[in-house]
Amino acid sequence: MNEEIDEYDIYHQDFTTVSEWEVFVARLEEVINEWHLSKSVLKRFPEYTKKWITKSEEIKFRGIQFTFSYHMLEPVKNTNDVEYTDDQSLLSELQKGLWESASKFMEDVDGSPFPVSNWFGLKRYLMLCSSSPLVDGSIIKIVMSSVNIAFGNVDCSVPLFVKIREHWQNVYLGVYEDNDYKTSFDTIHLKRISNHCSHLNGLMSLFKSKIASPIALDAVLISAKLCYELKDSDTFSWKQRNNSNEFLSIDGFDVKKLIELPFGAEKNPIHSACLNAIWPQFRESAIVDSSTFSDIDPIMAPTWTITLKLRNNIQCQLSEIIDKMMSLLDERNLLMDILGLSKSLGLVNPLHKITEAPITISKLVKAAIGQNTSVTEFKGPITDDLLMPLLYYVFPDAIENSNFPYPDRLDLESKQSEGSESKLCSYIKTSPEDGLVWRLSVTAIRLLDAGGLPYLAHFWYEFVQELQYRWEHRILLPG
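and the corresponding structure tokens:
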């Protein structure tokens, strides 16, 4: 006799609840639609620059953080976009890019964040990259199936890649699909190179076997490039141009040391250097390269090129000192507070002086003009032995037979146009070299870098005092 089984004892799975995998696929579709990458709305541009534009979104699946990004070459400005007429236009563009990548592999890296654009000649592509390496085969299959489903549901018009294996291996799986064809962009990473693939003769045999032509093939044209990359540049000494403050010495004022602004990178800005030995084109019978003998000698290469890759966030001395000067725009301290004049004049609390009884205006006036016996003589951080040469450099007419007179003619930089007169460079704000404003700017920025804000404040105070004296006595201000 069969026992009756209660239906509530049977485990039921609620298939109406959205699973994590479905959420992952839906999120991929949502991002692709937000970026307007379906075939119906995608726009094409006739010309592109070499600058890449990137958009990215963060997606999480099975505890793994993914970065879903879209990379596209920036179109040339003032060019009209062209609509794709059908799938054949998209497919022909991909095929053209593949052919160009095969014929232009001699060129250096195109600046894309991922090398797939250089390998397959792509002007735009999607990339799904995990924060941790994807080495589990089951997870790779699930992610690739999700990518294929999302790609088909939104009718995506851009190849989509997934980065797998260890990040340093640069292994990618890509897909593109239309109504008639499906293209797979697959890469492999060999642990070791096969013997027949280690020389040109073996590669030529492999190439001809893949073609499997029933008739004899013509001579194959070959292009070759050998790359020698130097990455460990930190082991080499970097001769840094030190920022010399010898002009602050009272032994002798040297203008050359004053106007010599700090320049150059603080550390080695070169990340790597790549030397390329290139044979642009030759017939397969012109050079022998086998397992026992090789004619490919880098010294005999007809073309050599070198490529330098710079580091990110390079710290340069000139830009840093200019940033210091520009940061003064946000300075809120008063000049008197920086130099301590408020304390020396008894004006630590000006409101107290106004509200105290009785109000003695003469006391404030005497303190301001230095007639009060309780006021000490002002002395700034710059010594007189250094301050006077600096002022005589900025105002050379203050003394006779100055060693640093203004030039007889102060001219701004001008540019000469073809068939026209020279015009002033109006695209920048500048002043004549070695003039008053030029000398003041150079001296101020050097003092700010050498002694900080108190040095600059002291020099500015003396500069304004000189301007006030000349204004009151109607003295001409040259330069």
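(Above: one complete record from the training split.) The first helix runs from residue 20 to 34.
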